[in-house]
Amino acid sequence: MTSPAFTAILAAFNEEDWVSSAIGSVLAQTRTDFELVVVDDGSTDATAEVVRTFQPDPRVRLISQENTGLAGALKTGIAASTAPYVALIDADDLWMPTYLEGLGRTLDENPKAGFAYTDAWCMNHATGRFWRISSNAYLGEPNPPPADPEEFLRLLLERNFVFGLTTIRRSAFDAVGGFDESLKAAEDYELWLRLLARGYEAARAPGRLAVTRDRGGAMHTDERNMLMHLREVYRIVAEDLETSDEVSAIARRRMRETDAQCGALDEGPLPTARKALRRRLGSIYKATFGRDFWYPGIPPEVARAFPDLAGGAETEASREP
Is the distance from CB of 128 to CB of 295 less than 8 angstroms? Predict the structure, then answer.
């Protein structure tokens, strides 16, 4: 095999039910100049066995290690990579067939970019339905996103609007020191902020080039854990990175806001009641405006890429909201 342009990194911990489809989406890319490194991060299920079924394809490599957490697993995968572009994929996400084509072109056209990102279709795994709104739109992505790294950094501190499956320029990754292994969540967010603080641009690939499957119960749903690591990310920006006074002030404000959110979680019954009310109002909204909230059936381009998703999504979407 010729030298790959991309190393796809998939870090997996107990993902036997999900990793097969994620790997399949990588192997179905229109660009074939890639290698895939799967890091089995101490799984106790059949994750490694599932990955081995793909190893007749010489592009697929499996590394098994004791559990270190996501940042440590990603570090292992990237250390084993050989390509100038590193493309991240999670077990519960899927790449559209032109993902590498689009992200690679974007980085080629933007040599000052440290990373490229795209948008994604959002699928509710329990129902098979797809949101009409895209991932980045839901997260409040500015349109268009700013080209200036500091302006992008300021906006990204205010709200994380970048869909997580970024493709990173390996030289930029090495220049800033890679992932912070002390973080057990939000390690990718911190890396993007650090790249921007060092003057690297962020480049947006057009379209929705991925599918994110909301399965519930994932690490990001542990609200306290996520808040504590977000606070540490803001502290790093405020105290450890060389940034402008304005950026530092935003980061310190975000620390205070996160402290307040953690305090609200500790108050007990009242926040719990508020959450229950929000959930109830959300269910009423969806019941009333469901046909506007959900895509009717499965988006055609997703159905063409992933025919196995179509049956459940169409059945669920045809029900009365």
Answer: no
Q: How confident is the model at residue 310 (pLDDT cuts 50, 70, 90)?
A: low
Q: Who's near 67: CB < 8 A, 6+ residues apart? A: 13, 41, 42
Q: What is the average pLDDT score of the chain?
A: 88
Whether pLDDT at 220 is above 50? no
The one-letter code for the residue type at 54 is: F
Q: N- to C-terminal Cα distance for the chain?
A: 50
Gap between the Cα atoms of 12 and 31, Å rounded = 24
- Cα–Cα distance for residue pair 142/52, rounded to 1 Å: 41
Cα–Cα distance list, 107 to 153, 218, 301 (Å): 19, 30, 24
3-state class percentages of the chain: helix first, strand second, coil last, to nearest 5: 50, 20, 35
Q: What is the DSSP letter of 240?
A: I
In one-letter notation, the amino acid at residue 277 is L
Q: Kindly report whether the peptide bond that precedes residue 144 is cis, defined as omega within 30 degrees of 0.
A: yes
Residue 241 neighbours by CB under 8 Å, 6+ apart: 193, 194, 197
The larger pLDDT score, comparing residue 95 to residue 82, is at 95
State the pLDDT confidence band at 266, using cuts at 50, 70 and 90: confident
Tell me the Ramachandran region of residue 177: left when phi exceeds 0, alpha when psi lies from -120 to 50, beta otherwise: left
**3-class SS of residue 10:** strand
CB 39 within 8 A of CB 73: yes
Buried b (16+ CB within 10 A) or exposed e, 259-294: eebeeeeeeeeeeeeeeeeeeeeeeeeeeeeeeebb
10 Å Cβ neighbour count for 87? 26
Residue 302: HSE in the Cβ half-sphere, 13 Å Cα cutoff: 28
